[in-house]
Hints:
This protein is of the alpha+beta class. Helix 2 packs antiparallel against helix 3. The chain has helices at 14-24, 29-38, 44-64, 133-137, 150-157, 181-189, and strands at residues 2-11, 75-83, 90-94, 100-104, 107-115.
Amino acid sequence: MEARASAKYLRGSAQKARLVIDMIRGKNVNQALAILRFANKRAALGIEKCVKSAIANANEAAEKANIAVDPDELWLKAAFVDRGPTKHRSRMRPAPQGRAFRERRHFCHVTILVSSDKQAGNLGAKTTPAVSKRAKRGGAAAAPRAKRTAPKAEAESGEKKVAAPKKEAKGEKKVAAKPSKAAGRKKTEE
């Protein structure tokens, strides 16, 4: 049995609400409510109300379908936050030297899906390897680093390999690979 609840137009940005949602996703309902009760975040109060609403919706749907559902066995199958509107929610804030900064007031929409089905399959080991946050960003942070294997091999054998410096004779001069432009002009004139 699955039930869903959504809380729309909660005050605060979606990014800050996602920090709270990430703490409770995939947990038992009782654990999630305990985490939300003691979370030191502003968004936790609205999310807690949404979780309680989803539990009530599950009980109501179970009664209509004539199915017995224990609220303690429910778990959060899915929880996500969408960005709400910021249009017409900008305010002016005083700034130094008579200027004004525009401040945007953010809203977010929270959706929670609870389920009474077994969660063993969802909480098992992931089949795909975890990707770090640096790799997701891309760029130089995602590039693999070169591994230094030579110093380890030298340390194991106990010998140090030293390259001999090249010595030049006193009378030798380096020969230029390309002739100068002036030399090329003289040949064409002759």
